[in-house]
Amino acid sequence: MYMLNGPLVVSLVVIVIAIIFAIQSIKVVPQQTAWVIERLGKFHTVLNPGLNFIIPFIDKVAYRHSLKEIPLDTPSQVCITRDNTQLSVDGVLFFQVTDPKRASYGTSNYIVAITQLAQTTLRSVIGRMELDRTFEERDAINNNVVAAIDEAALNWGVKVLRYEIKDLTPPTVILQAMQQQITAEREKRALIAASEGRKQEQINLATGAKEAAIAQSEGEKQAEINKAQGQAAATIAIADATAQAIRNIASASKDEGGMTAVNLQIAEKYVEAFSNLARTNNTLIVPSNLGDMASLISSAMKIVKSDSQAASPIKK
After folding, report:
1. Which entry of 63, 87, 159, 169 is 20 to 30 Å from 39 by CA?
2. Nearest alpha carbon to residue 302 among 265, 276, 263, 255
3. Whole-model pTM above 0.70?
4. Which residues of 165-174 are buried (b: 16+ CB within 10 A; e: fewer)?
5. Does an H or E element contain 77, and which?
6. Which residues pair with 47 in a beta bridge?
């Protein structure tokens, strides 16, 4: 059997130890990852992403931390509101390791610490609110939880980014009461809307009747105005025609034979007037000098002449 001599064995052992030493000394850290190195049990350094070298058997990778944003579900818990109503609340917390050294040595388990702190802070915030406000102010609850956890998590090398409530579940009795309240509110809005509709209908009818009455009165007013204007225009036209006729008679009386025509017309009107009196009245009015028609006509002509002389201007 072939036997290895001593120097060859020593050389092989040295080579193997060198290979193991080289392998143990090379550390490749992935992106968004941080490795904490302890040297002889004491913190030494943090390896950044990429190729790194350590001293084998002296340096040790004690902790590996992911620097990515991590979502963490917080368990559901029962919270009591200010008005003594129980709520079952659960949410999700988003955080990120910012200091690998503190995340390694600041707490034994920063995930458990963050979870417990989120639950206790959530109970405290909801305990200061009434039931209705918890549904309306989710953003305020989330911000208060983040502010409280972030302040404490600084010593743990963790940055709390945000907290989101997933569910707020009240007891079944409260849910039924809330449903009845919503139903009653909807019925109230429906009744108010119907009454507003009837009110608007009555207003529209009254407004329409008012406008119709105003329009009718305006029409009657305009009709009376038009009638009065028509009567005034007719009176003026009659007066103008009468004046023109008188001017024509006066002008015609100055012509040859004109006074004879005037005398004849006056006699006709005189006889016609007494004829009408005889037809329309039971009492017949007869002048004392009816037989002397010429004297009657002469008297009438004297009146016409005196009126015409009084109306004509005096010439010097």
Report:
1. 159
2. 263
3. no
4. beebebeeee
5. strand 70-80
6. 35
